[in-house]
Amino acid sequence: MILKDNWLGRADRDRGRFRSFLLKSLQNFLINAAERTSARKRGGDVEFVSADDWTAEQLSRLSVRMGAFEALPPDQLFDLAWAATVAEHALRRLREECESKGKLWLFQALSPHLTKERDELSYSELSARLGVNETALRKQLHHMRQRYRNLLRTEVSQTVDKPSEVDDEIRYLCACLARATS
Amino acid sequence: MMRSATSVHAWREQRANFHSMNSDSRQNKGANVVEAAAKCEKCGARLLLDSGACARCLLRKGLEGDSDMSAALYESLLAEVDTPHQSWWLGNYQILEQIGCGGMGVIYRARQRHSQRIVAVKRVLSYRADSPGALERFRREAQAIASLDHPHILPIYEVSQSEDGLPFFSMKFAQQGSLEDNLASFRREPRKCAQLMAKVGRAVEYAHSRGVLHRDIKPGNILLNDRGEPLVSDFGLAKLLDGYHDLTRSLTTFGTAGYIAPEQAEGAASDVTPAADVYSLGAVLFKLLAGRAPFLGPNPVSIIRQASEAPAPRLRSLEPSLDRDLEIICARCLERDPNARYQSAGDFAEDLERWLDGRPIVARPISAAARVCRWVQRNPRLVATGVAGLVSGATAVSLLQSELFRPPQSDQAHSRTAALPVRQINEIKSQPSNPAIDKPSHRQADKNLHKLYQDLFTNLVQPTEPGSIGVKAPLREPFLRMPATFKEAAVANSNSPDTRMQVGSATPRPGIVADARRDALESRPQANKITVTASAPSANIDSSNSARRRAWQTGAVTDKAADGPASLQGLVKDSKGEPIQGAVVRIESRDGRRFFTTVRTDSKGRYLSRGLQPGVYRVTLLVNGEVKASVMNTQTNANRPTDLNFDIRRISQAGNSARGRRHMVWVPSRTGSHIGGSWVEVDDAGAAHSGSNIQTVTTRNW
């Protein structure tokens, strides 16, 4: 659907956040879908776009708490999926960058520890397992975190109007995730 | 925001719709959100990504620290750490280095475990692996290549799967890299280029014969082995001709701008035929010979647009020293009409081989004199034994040929054919081909027909007073008998089946006759006319109320509550009023620089583009890849469909339909090289009305 109508091309950077644009578009889509369904009853000419096609464009899969799924309103669910997509998209770009330099092994070894604090991680164990110098490993994890931060902010910056809104948007997405788990 | 009881109810309904629509995807397809009891050890959130990472913790990383790390810097830092002893293996292959990265896969140079031979290993990009079609396309590529066994097609050794479940395959390693890397060694070596491309053409012909279309032939996909022999590779976009394996979604363009055929860029995947690969072969040959691709532009869209709207530049305009036959071979491949190209990649290869042997090429039967010259070149010994006799013979043959086979005067031929009504042309085109006609001349006839079509849609225009009703194109010699007013002309010729003059209730401005006559003399006789009918339902209270109500239902009422999607719809019909199926309606920005969407007409000639941002667009109609009309300033409105119909008709029909019904008539005008005009609404009595939402129309190389 997105490719067919070049729908993303209609997003106007000056008119707000891309996430809001998507949410509004989804709402419009649902309304239109409902109208189409009723039009079909009247024998109208119907062009129905499968929701599967739409969801297929999404990249990430998100696990939520048992029971929370049904309780969440669709727009919150959308925000959740959005937040997860942003986080994962940045992660995949990081993976690609590593792979393109022949360092997929490094990504696979270090990416599970991206969010860990220093005291939560045993560098010596990791170093022994990988056969890489511990200092080098520390440095690489630090670099990887920095790069991930950069990629994540780049991802988010593409969906907001001004660079100054990036922090707000990330906080908003974090809040969405927190709300869903509460 | 407060919502009324009704809107809350409606909102719940929408939510129920959302849930019911997504239920299948949740159960069967691996939806975006799934239920699970997994929990982040750090923050306790039960929101884990597929990889097991906590989305919330990852997002928080974006708020920590303030140092920036560019991709280049990170890559250099990555290079600091050595790959440990336990080197990276993909199945039985030790990965040595990355040698390429395409849209879908990454390619490594690798060593096979037991044989120790060096191979190329291609695996799908991890990022792309999530796209539903990517894995299938990757598998299809392996399947496509595995079914091909040709000395100039890169052979595949093994298809396998890595530990992380992603497929990969190994293939022959091409020592010299791709043709793209070796372009310099082919510059100013036309024979070498022709030899190489003839082999590539034969390989592509073989693939076609096995039911595989390549669809992405370009220098980067032609590899060279250690002896410099070409190996066609990267069947990542290959389409199996059985029609069941095509995953390419319609209206999605794949391929490489500059090398893909216009119909491949514009059309549905099902429209792509072997002729698209022939186009790409010609584009590669062009690049080898001229040092640049046929079309250049700042971005892929602009390149694709040029390829679909303008003829390819002449090869010798860039490299005058090249042989004219090579120019003809390239031009033949780069024809915009697939039917005007070589019928197969084999024909292309054969013509190159003919050229290499000094024989006449098929694309252009050469003159008798030139034929003799070539024969002389091929048979120098015979020439030495009988120079005098041969030369006189050649002269005689040349004279005889030129006398017997002299083509009719082009002007006469043109005026005769241009006067044919469209119906007759259609009949000619639909006639079964005559097997008695030899191939080249048959193709030439096809080409002429194609040209004729183009000419027929070229409108000759002259200025009229603003607001008057349109006056349309003259033909042949009408102005020699030009009456005082157009109205008289219309009446005078109204009984003639061969009417050339049309409509007209307004007296033209002084000087218009002279202008028109000059135009008629300067231009070739041309005949056709496109009538566009346009209407947008006037705004009414109900519809805007409805928009507001719907906005309420979404709980998102703002100042722009009535802003909703606009849509554009209409019919495209030919001269007989028959619907044209598969015509492309392109919706662009007014300046034509941005391209929003493309829709195709269905079997009833209908098209529909929903969900447009309300605003003003340029709408361009293409039939068989040819631009027929471009309607500037098409206003679309929120929540209301705008009708825009295209009627391709002969002038007389256009005039009648304009008068008979309440239609739009084009009032043409010319400003410099820009042909434009304005649209005026005409009612049953032939009186003009204003209020049209279309102001001008431009025609581009009709």
Spell out the blueprint of helices and strands.
The complex is a heterodimer of chains A (182) and B (702).
Chain A: H1 18-41, H2 51-56, E1 62-64, H3 68-71, H4 74-100, H5 104-110, H6 123-130, H7 134-157, H8 166-181
Helix pairs in contact in A: 4-5, 4-7, 4-8
Chain B: H1 5-29, E1 33-35, E2 48-49, H2 55-61, H3 71-78, E3 89-90, E4 93-101, E5 105-112, E6 118-124, H4 132-146, E7 156-161, E8 167-172, H5 190-209, E9 212-213, E10 222-224, E11 230-232, E12 239-240, H6 262-266, H7 274-290, H8 300-309, H9 315-318, H10 324-333, H11 345-357, H12 368-378, H13 380-385, H14 387-404, H15 410-418, H16 422-430, H17 439-456, H18 486-492, H19 512-522, E13 528-535, H20 541-553, E14 566-573, E15 584-588, E16 595-600, E17 606-612, E18 615-623, E19 626-636, E20 641-650, H21 651-660, E21 663-671, E22 674-682, E23 688-689, E24 697-698
Parallel strand pairs in B: 14-20
Antiparallel strand pairs in B: 3-4, 4-5, 5-6, 6-8, 7-8, 9-12, 10-11, 13-20, 14-17, 15-16, 15-18, 18-19, 19-24, 21-22, 22-23
Helix pairs in contact in B: 5-7, 5-11, 7-10, 10-11
How many distinct domains of chain A? 2
Q: CATH superfamily of the largest domain in chain B, called what?
A: Carboxypeptidase-like, regulatory domain
Number of strands of chain B: 24
Percent helix of chain A, as a range, is: 55-70%
Number of strands of chain A: 1
Radius of gyration of chain A: 21 Å
